[in-house]
Amino acid sequence: MKSVKSPSKLLHALRLGAVLGAGLGACAAALAADPTLYVDPQTTAAVWARSNPSDGRSGDIASRIASQPHAKWFGDWSGNIATAVGNYVGTAASQGRTPVLVSYNIPARDCGQYSAGGANSLQGYRDWIRAFAGAIGNRAAIVILEPDALPQLDCLDATGKAGRLDLFQYATTQFATLAPRAYVYLDIGNSAWLAPAEAATRLVNAGVSKVRGFSLNVSNYRTDGESNPYGIAVANALRQRGLNKTFVVDTSRNGNGPDGSKWCDPTGRKLGVTPRYNSATSSPEMTLWIKAPGEADGCAAAAGTFLPEYAYKMIYGY
User: Fold this and answer.
1) Residue 270 DSSP symbol
2) pTM recorded for the entire structure
3) Residue tagged active-site, from 40, 110, 250, 265
């Protein structure tokens, strides 16, 4: 894994219960000052730390990684997707928190590489993503839609490209209709992948007009100094097409930046800034931990496997 409605109608959605009945401006201020992202006690880091209390690394992993809000990834391993998403969002809602979810089930996922898989058919994906959106319902959530799927259009033939873009159009419609309080971001890769104009073209073709914006650097290591100006450039390219969109950046592992072009479990990486909701005028809108620090990309171990030594070294950047 490498890497809704109009914004004015959604500013109230991210913090459940905190500003019910307040005006839109008051809600926006509350969001900027007091993000309430859900911290999942069942992340791989949290489970490992609880299971290994005598390990000298567990304290740091618990306090520096497991204590932070991570995104939860959903895909072909998730079982009944309506149940899985509904339970997760419901648990977060019961605590007045906003969960971050990743939809990762596009057919021909990851171009058949380390995170290969996904739905078996176009219709299968339509059914799956409709159930995903419906399970969120009228609750607050942040959704990252299909990491790498738009940058990886180039691995598909013409029919495959058209089918994938149709799936994005369908998905964005489902979220706008069935999950109107969700902030949805279409993933567009990282700053070293597509030129801003090309990124904007793919986002437009995928239906970004119907959602909040786009995501960058998912499961990658590009610094904020690279990602943020790139995101602004993509947003400007969208603005030239009449779309005012914002973006979020995955900062979970970008503290030391990339190791050249290596993206698969490079050594010497470091945690980036912690997840937070920035001010209304800031770019990016949010920094998020979308890829869980300590989970393998697919080279050091199977993709998604938690490696405590990898996690521990990432805390200190060695």
Assistant:
1) B
2) 0.89
3) 110
Cβ pair 218, 291 in contact under 8 A: yes
**The one-letter amino acid at 102:** V
Which 3 state secondary structure label does DSSP give 294?
A: coil
Q: 48 lies in a domain?
A: no
Host domain of residue 289: 7-35+70-316
CA distance 127 to 131: 6
Catalytic residue of the set 187, 224, 250, 297: 297
pLDDT at 6 over 70: no
Catalytic one of 40, 148, 224, 265? 148
- Local structure of 222: helix, strand or coil: coil
DSSP 42-103: TSHHHHHHHH-TTSTTHHHHIIIIITS-B-EEESTTSSSHHHHHHHHHHHHHHTT-B-EEEE
Rounded CA-CA distance 192/187 in Å is: 14
Confidence of residue 129 (pLDDT cuts 50, 70, 90): very high
pLDDT at 264 > cutoff 50 = yes
In a domain, 103, yes or no: yes
Q: What is the DSSP letter of 143?
A: E
Per-residue model confidence as pLDDT tens digits over 91-120:
999 999 999 999 999 999 988 777 888 999
40 in catalytic set: no
Instruction: Return the structure tokens found at 158.
Output: 């013409």
Q: What is the three-class DSSP state of 188?
A: coil
Classify residue 63: in a domain, yes or no: no
User: Helix, strand, coil proportions of the chain in percent (round to 5)?
Assistant: 40, 15, 45
The answer to whether the CB of 43 falls within 8 A of the CB of 252 is: no
CATH of the domain at 304: 3.20.20.40
110 noted as active-site residue = yes
Q: Which of 54-58, 137-141, 205-209, 273-277 has the lowest mean pLDDT?
A: 273-277
In a domain, 56, yes or no: no
Instruction: Tell me whether residue 297 is one of the annotated catalytic residues.
Output: yes
Number of domains in the chain: 1
